[in-house]
């Protein structure tokens, strides 16, 4: 009788899944780097006093947030090359993840910035600090630590969205498990391992975010 779960087969395919896991982690970390960096830029631009800057940025944020990530991936992978701009499937996926989640991070940053007491802005103005110095030295050090948990949630969410990369031919973790299943007609082991790997890494990411939050609070993040 064939066992429901074959441990020897699971150990045999684990290295293959591990190589695909590297692609998944790479896409998540680089995509999140794009998201947190671009998100901060978008948040600052949306708060600009110049409506010619803030309104288009607000439109872009709402447009990207209101359209599916998968559609955006298809657009970047299949439509953008028609303009002459070609990227590898993995690079396209990383940019798509980064752009999509940057709009969510921008709103998180904006909420954190607007939560800084108005007196902080007034004190910086009284000290004749420029808007750049006020933002970098006064506002952002107080605004970012409280929003770290929300940014961490998007990190985990992005990690779980990486299977969408298979739609643009990236062989990530889930896609590799399906390829193994189609070749061996055994899906229980690869899909179970994928679920366990996603669970383990999501828990590690959540633990890391909590540690970062505690460190930021310890070094002046609390208000």
Break the fold down into its secondary structure elements and pairings.
Layout (H helix, E strand, L loop, with lengths): L6 H40 L4 H15 L3 H11 L9 H26 L3 H9 L4 H31 L11 H12 L3 H34 L2
Helix pairs in contact: 1-4, 1-6, 1-7, 1-8, 2-4, 3-4, 4-6, 5-6, 6-8, 7-8
Structure description:
There is one protein chain. The protein is an all-alpha fold and 223 residues long. The chain has a domain at 22-171: MetI-like fold. The model has no long low-confidence stretch (mean pLDDT 91). The chain has helices spanning 7-46, 51-65, 69-79, 89-114, 118-126, 131-161, 173-184, 188-221. The chain has 8 helices and no strands. It is 80% helix and 0% strand. The chain starts with 6 loop residues before the first helix and ends with a helix.
The helix-strand sequence is HHHHHHHH
Low-confidence residue ranges: none
Total number of beta strands:
0
From the spread of the alpha carbons, the general shape counts as elongated
Assembly status: single chain
CATH topology of the domain at 22-171: MetI-like fold
The largest β sheet comes out as: none
Question: Do you know the CATH architecture of the domain at 22-171?
Answer: Orthogonal Bundle
Rounded to the nearest angstrom, the distance between the terminal CA atoms is 63 Å
Helix content: over 70%
Radius of gyration of CA atoms, rounded to a whole number: 21 Å
By helix and strand content, what is the structural category?
mainly alpha
């Amino acid at each position: 009788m064939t066992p429901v779960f074959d441990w020897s087969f699971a150990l045999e395919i684990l290295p293959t899944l591990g190589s695909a896991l590297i692609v998944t982690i790479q896409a998540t970390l680089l995509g999140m780097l794009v998201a947190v960096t671009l998100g901060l830029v978008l948040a600052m631009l949306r708060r600009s006093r110049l409506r010619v800057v803030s309104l288009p940025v607000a439109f872009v944020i709402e447009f990207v947030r209101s359209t599916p990530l998968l559609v955006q991936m298809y657009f970047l992978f299949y439509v953008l090359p028609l303009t002459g701009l070609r990227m590898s499937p993995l690079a396209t996926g990383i940019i798509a993840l980064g752009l999509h989640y940057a709009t969510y991070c921008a709103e998180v940053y904006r909420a954190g910035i607007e939560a800084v007491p108005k007196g902080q802005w007034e004190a910086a103005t009284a000290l004749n600090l420029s808007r750049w110095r006020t933002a970098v030295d006064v506002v952002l050090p107080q605004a970012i630590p409280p929003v770290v948990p929300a940014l961490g949630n998007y990190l985990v969410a992005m990690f779980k969205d990486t299977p969408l990369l298979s739609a643009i031919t990236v062989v990530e973790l889930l896609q590799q498990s399906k390829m193994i299943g189609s070749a061996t007609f055994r899906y229980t082991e690869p899909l179970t391992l994928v679920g366990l790997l996603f669970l383990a890494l999501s828990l590690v990411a959540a633990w890391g975010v909590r540690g970062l939050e505690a460190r930021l609070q310890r070094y002046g993040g609390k208000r």
